[in-house]
Design brief:
Blueprint lengths: L2 H15 L15 E6 L2 E11 L13 E2 L7 H7 L2 E6 L5 H10 L6 E3 L5 E3 L5 E2 L10 E6 L11 H6 E4 L2 E4 L25 E5 L2 E5 L4 H17 L22 H6 L2 E4 H4 L12 H12 L5
Parallel strand pairs: 2-6, 4-8, 4-13, 5-8
Antiparallel strand pairs: 1-2, 3-7, 5-6, 9-10, 11-12
The chain binds zinc ion.
Zinc ion binds next to loops.
């Protein structure tokens, strides 16, 4: 067998046997399409996704671990994955988020940049390190956003947002250049112009909203995940008054919950995705995408 054939067979064997350090065999580089990758299979979701195999994608291979059981069997995976956890990245842009996660030896399946580009950094067969006890049963997304702060204490919000006649927009510090944002010249404006003030985890916080492009992409991603993993319901945890819960769930409620939740629903020391995240509009859009009515 010639050298390159041995290399090819070796690469294929590694792809089949090693769930951890080696990504599945890389596809040829190609422009972003609209597919997410699950157990090596591709599923259309209707919004641009740059995978770890593509340029300029991000990869956590070597940083994550397999789901418990190390399965690459789609049926077993469907039985296991029943939560989709939303985070804000407190970095403002996905390129920085990726670097910070690497430094902190963390990982996540998706990063969602301000222009609505989704970056998939692991096959969804892998377990990512993003949400403690939910890691073994969840898919995670880090949404680019500077985060939420007690009113008046978020100096970075005033430093990073400028104003023009159309309202506030993200004005990156010069040292970040174009921030690696895929859409050239993209102007990132929050979906609602004023800082949103609200309660999360018993604390009053203020935050700039996510961009309309981020909501649009997230809705497509959540609907796509609900199709691939039918145990992920298009619903969030609810408080007794029917509103989306604003704090961490009890262990029992967390165990029973199969759907979309914020990091703050999983653990008490987190506030993401923060008070600005528009749960009701988002969930209604995901249900509409799936052709389902409100529960
Ligand atoms: Zn988080």
């Amino acid at each position: 067998m010639s050298g390159w054939k041995i290399g090819l067979v070796g690469a294929l064997l590694l792809g089949l046997c090693a769930c951890r350090a080696n990504p599945p065999p890389a596809a040829a580089l190609r422009p972003p399409d609209d597919e997410i990758v699950v157990c090596g299979q591709r599923f259309h979701i209707g919004t641009p996704v740059v995978t770890w195999e593509q340029f300029p994608g991000y990869s956590f291979y070597g940083k994550g671990e397999c789901f418990v059981g190390g399965t690459r069997d789609p049926e077993a995976l469907r039985a296991q994955v029943d939560q989709f956890v939303l985070h804000f990245d407190v970095c403002g842009i996905s390129r920085t988020c990726y670097r910070v996660l690497l430094e902190r030896k963390l990982s996540v399946h998706f990063m969602l940049d301000v222009d609505g580009t989704l970056y998939q950094a692991l096959d969804l067969a892998e377990r990512a390190w993003h949400a403690t006890k939910s890691n073994t049963r969840s898919i995670g997304v880090e949404i680019a956003n500077l985060g939420a702060y007690p009113p008046g204490q978020g100096r970075i919000l005033d430093e990073w947002y400028a104003q023009d006649a159309d309202g506030p927009y993200l004005a990156l510090p010069a040292r970040l250049g174009d921030g690696g944002i895929r859409t050239a010249g993209f102007v990132a404006r929050p979906a609602r112009p004023a800082k949103v003030v609200g309660e999360t985890q018993g604390e009053t916080l203020e935050q700039y909203d996510f961009t309309p492009a981020q909501y649009a992409a997230l809705e497509k991603l959540a609907a796509g995940l609900a199709r691939v993993f039918p145990r992920i319901e298009p619903e969030a945890p609810r408080a007794p008054d029917g509103a989306v819960a604003r704090g961490a769930l009890s262990d029992e409620a967390w165990k029973d919950f199969h759907g979309i939740l914020g990091h703050y629903h999983v653990q008490q020391n987190k506030t993401d995705p923060g008070p600005a995240f528009d749960w009701e509009d988002f969930l209604a859009a995901v249900r509409a995408e799936l052709g389902r009515t409100a529960p």
